[in-house]
Design goal:
It comes from Paenibacillus curdlanolyticus YK9. This is Thioesterase superfamily protein. With 210 residues, the protein is of the alpha+beta class. The protein has one domain: Roll (Thiol Ester Dehydrase, Chain A), CATH 3.10.129. 32% of the residues lie in helices and 31% in strands. The two termini are 19 Å apart.
Length: 210
C-alpha cells in the first residue's frame, strides 16, 4: 500500500481525476445517484456538452473560534496542524455546497503561514470555490486572526485545497462551473487555470525524474 504522504504528494502535482483512476482508488465517472443529468451538465442542440453554473458566493463558508491554550505550542501561537484542520473543514463545506455531493480532499497547494495566530485571538476561516475542472474543485481558504482588545485583524494563513466530487457509489462525478463576481473571485478564477497547469507540469517533471 502506498504511504499516505506519498499519495498526497502525487495528488498535489497531477491531473487529480486521472491519478485517482490510475491508482485504482475510484472507478470511472458516473452521475450522482438521484441527481438529474441537467443539474451539472447536458448536451446542447449541437451535441456539445454544456455545464451548469453556480456563483462562487454560493459556496462561501465561515468558521469562527477562539484560540485556547490547548490549541497553542510552547511559544503561545496556534499549532499549524490545528489551523489546517479548520481550513480543511471549511473548504469541504464550500466544495459540498457547490457540488451538492460528497467530496474528498485530494490535495493542498500554496499553504502560506504569513503571520502567527496567538493565544486568546479569534480565528476566522473563510473559503469559496474558485474554479472547477470536470469533477475537481479548487477552493481558496484564508484564516484571519483578530485581537479582541485592539480589534486588529490580519490575514494569517492562505491556501488552496483541491476536492473531488463523488456520487452515491463513491465514484467521481461532474460538478457545475463557477461564476465569479467580486474582484477577489475574478482574480482567483482568472489565475486558477495556470495553477492547474503548474500542478500537471510538476507531476510530469516528477515522472521523468523517477
Amino acid at each position: 500500500m502506498m504511504p499516505l504522504a506519498s499519495f498526497c504528494c502525487i495528488l498535489a502535482y497531477t491531473t487529480l481525476e486521472q491519478v485517482i483512476l490510475d491508482l485504482g482508488l475510484l472507478k470511472p465517472m458516473k452521475e450522482c445517484k438521484g441527481m438529474s443529468e441537467q443539474t451539472n451538465e447536458w448536451k446542447d442542440n449541437r451535441g456539445a456538452i454544456a455545464r451548469a453554473q453556480r456563483r462562487a458566493s454560493e459556496s462561501r463558508a465561515v468558521i469562527t473560534d477562539i484560540v485556547f491554550p490547548s490549541d497553542t505550542n510552547h511559544l503561545g501561537t496556534m499549532f499549524g496542524g490545528k489551523v489546517m484542520e479548520y481550513m480543511d473543514k471549511v473548504a469541504a463545506i464550500s466544495a459540498m455546497r457547490h457540488a451538492r455531493c460528497a467530496v474528498v480532499t485530494a490535495s493542498t497547494d500554496h499553504i502560506d503561514f504569513v503571520q502567527p495566530i496567538r493565544l486568546g485571538d479569534v480565528i476566522t476561516v473563510e473559503s469559496f470555490v474558485t474554479w472547477t475542472h470536470r469533477s475537481s474543485m479548487e477552493v481558496y481558504v484564508s484564516a484571519q486572526s483578530e485581537n479582541l482588545r485592539t480589534g486588529d485583524r490580519i490575514t494569517a494563513v492562505t491556501a488552496f485545497f483541491i476536492f473531488v466530487a463523488l456520487n452515491d457509489e463513491g465514484k467521481p462525478t461532474a460538478v457545475p462551473g463557477i461564476v465569479p463576481e467580486s474582484a477577489e473571485e475574478l482574480q482567483l478564477h482568472d489565475s486558477a487555470a495556470e495553477r492547474y497547469a503548474e500542478r500537471n507540469k510538476r507531476m510530469e517533471e516528477r515522472k521523468r525524474s523517477t
